[in-house]
Specification:
The protein is α/β, with parallel strands linked by helices and about 325 residues long. The protein folds into two domains: about 220 residues, 3-Layer(aba) Sandwich (Rossmann fold), CATH 3.40.50.150; about 80 residues, Putative methyltransferase TM0872, insert domain (DNA polymerase, domain 1, Orthogonal Bundle). Helices cover about 40% and strands about 15% of the residues. A seven-stranded mixed beta sheet has the order 3-2-1-4-5-7-6, with helices on both faces. The radius of gyration is 21 Å and the shape is globular. The N terminus is likely disordered.
Length: about 325
């Protein structure tokens, strides 16, 4: 297992690193929370910004936490790592007895550690147990879902979380196969998806990509967890503190965008329509604008449009290509 920065960097290059540092401003000192600390790339740069900067790092993955601990060892005494889900930020920080957080970061991507270690079951590029749990010590696996959900529930899951138009064909093929034998590996599932979609010739994106995304989201409760996390994180920020979130697909980014709007005092009851009425008026800090959606003016949105990686970063790190950064500031 790697224990030095060179080996860890080979596993994972932090996405949008310079942009995150520019928005969070760790050079000013203070307490920051890295809610998905991963291998410690963002946290390392935050801690390097000032000797007055401290970091609490959170991650579901115990293997990632061990690597992050090695990487951050040079900042001994200025960081603390917690094994938990970031959606528990409220209770975690309360237990730590801290308040007045200057900056919070959540990088929602699957880490290279998880993708590149085939035994974790996140990737269809190698054959491995169909797992996909970010915390391998608890919860249902992707194999559990594939083998236990009804055909209609499986189709709905793949369509909703994977935005896969062929969801019903895939679900039908899965059920037909599992009636003969359990689907246990990533290769079995990937081959089933290819067969169900009947995509011939060469493809730019593997046909199983959306199905694997859907199962990963479901296994780790990623979207509902994100909906719970954002208001809790805003509550923990000090006035002027900033929340930065990096998402990697439209489902995540839509939640971040709409929740930021709601936290800025913008009614989102009809987000597809032009906003009029109370959602447009000027409101005081912490004033409830809409009882229905809970719109309350607590933040100002700093990124009118999401920040994307530079072309140089995308060339250097292809996994960054879909990254979107949104930032808000507590009033």
């Amino acid at each position: 297992m790697p224990t030095d920065d060179t080996e860890i960097d080979a596993l994972h290059e932090p996405v949008l690193l310079r942009e995150v540092i520019d928005w969070l401003r760790p050079a000013d000192g203070g307490l920051f929370v890295d809610c998905t600390v991963g291998l410690g790339g963002h946290s390392s740069e935050i801690l390097a910004g000032s000797t007055e900067t401290r970091v609490i790092g959170i991650d579901r993955d115990p293997a990632a936490l061990e690597l992050a601990r090695d990487r951050l060892a040079i900042f001994e005494g200025r960081f603390r790592l917690l094994h938990s889900n970031f959606e528990n930020i409220d209770s975690l920080l309360e237990n730590e007895g801290v308040s007045g957080i200057r900056g919070i970061l959540a990088d929602l991507g699957v880490s290279s550690l998880q993708l590149d270690r085939s035994e974790r079951g996140f990737s269809f590029l190698s054959d491995a147990p169909l797992d996909m749990r970010m915390d391998p010590s608890s919860g249902q696996t992707a194999a559990d879902l594939v083998n236990e959900l009804s055909e209609s529930d499986l189709a709905d899951l793949i369509f909703e979380y994977g935005e896969e138009r062929g969801a019903r064909k895939i679900a039908r093929r899965i059920v037909q196969r599992r009636d003969r034998e359990a689907i246990a590996t990533t290769r079995q599932l990937a081959e089933l998806v290819v067969g169900a979609l009947q995509i011939r010739g060469r493809w730019r994106i593997h046909p199983a990509t959306k199905t694997f995304q859907a199962l990963r989201i479901a296994v780790n409760d990623e979207l509902k967890g994100l909906e719970r996390f954002i208001p809790a994180a805003v509550s923990k920020l000090q006035p002027g503190g900033r929340l930065a979130i990096i998402s990697f697909h439209s489902l995540e980014d839509r939640i971040v965008k709409h929740t930021f709007l709601r936290e800025s005092g913008r009614c989102v009851c009809a987000v597809t329509k032009r906003q009029t009425g109370p959602g447009r008026r000027e409101a005081g800090v912490d004033e409830v604008i809409c009882e229905s959606c809970g719109a309350t003016r607590r933040i100002v949105i700093l990124t009118r449009k999401p920040v994307r990686p530079s072309s140089e970063e995308m060339d250097r790190n292809p996994r960054s290509r879909s990254a979107l950064l949104r930032v808000c500031e507590k009033l």
